[in-house]
Design goal:
142 residues, PH-domain like, 7 strands
Amino acid sequence: MKPIAVSVPFFFDVYEGFGQVAGILSTTKTGLSLQYEIRDALIGTIKTDLRKIFCSYADIADLDVKAGWFRTRIFIRLNTMESLKDIPMTHAGEMVLSVKRKHREAAVELVSRAKLSLSEYHLEMLENDAEADSTGESTLPC
């Protein structure tokens, strides 16, 4: 049996190339976990403290992976901007994480598992709403 959690190191440039966000994206049973730090791109010695963000499957609108020649990119789109408010270079609840070529298979596996979990979450919400409709209550927002 395969482990539940999959982790992939990621990076992306910030501050017009003078900084870089580097971290680890992981799957959990209930969402995606991002641990990251921001460091200067010139020397690499100045770093921020380690920061952690959790995005539940309820907050994730879409997730995709695209492979290029030298790197792979993971695209994450959320339903709200709240989760990503502290990460620079995120626009309208969307984030693009770059992954080195040697971690491509892990990135594809991570997105595949996350999409499966996201689908299971949406199916569970639909089933709960169907049960609530039969009792006159709704769990989905209007």
